[in-house]
Amino acid sequence: MLITTKVSKKSQIVIPKKVREAVGISEGDELIVDVEGDSVILKVKPKSYAKKLRGLHKDVWKGIDPRKYVKGERESW
């Protein structure tokens, strides 16, 4: 999705409705602002980092018994 917006006299921008809807931004949400080279990147700040990270990479452990894995690792020491 490529949409343009203008910077106001007060250096403010409006995030277009289609963009807000696409990423789920609503009133009161905080955004993280990052700069990479000549690009400004906006990311929605998670309300809870713990909830955001829960289940991350769960597919890596699919089919692996964690108890057997840990036991094998401990025995290899």
Helix fraction by DSSP (H/I, runs of at least 4): 25-40%
The assigned structural class equals alpha+beta
Q: Which percent range describes the beta-strand content?
A: 15-25%
Mean pLDDT: 91
Q: What characteristic shape results from the CA principal axes? A: elongated
Instruction: Give the N-terminus to C-terminus distance in angstroms.
Output: 51 Å
The largest beta-sheet arranges its strands as 1-2
Give the number of DSSP strands.
2
What is the H/E order?
Answer: HEEHH
Number of domains as seen in the coordinates: 1
- Helical stretch tally: 3
Question: Mind telling me the C-alpha Rg?
Answer: 21 Å
Low-pLDDT residue intervals, each spanning 5 or more residues: none
Major sheet details: 2 strands, antiparallel
Compact description:
By secondary structure, this protein is of the alpha+beta class.
How would you describe this structure to a colleague?
- It is a single chain.
- With 77 residues, this protein is of the alpha+beta class.
- The protein has helices at residues 17-23, 49-53, 66-76; strands at residues 31-36, 39-44.
- The protein is elongated, with a radius of gyration of 21 Å.
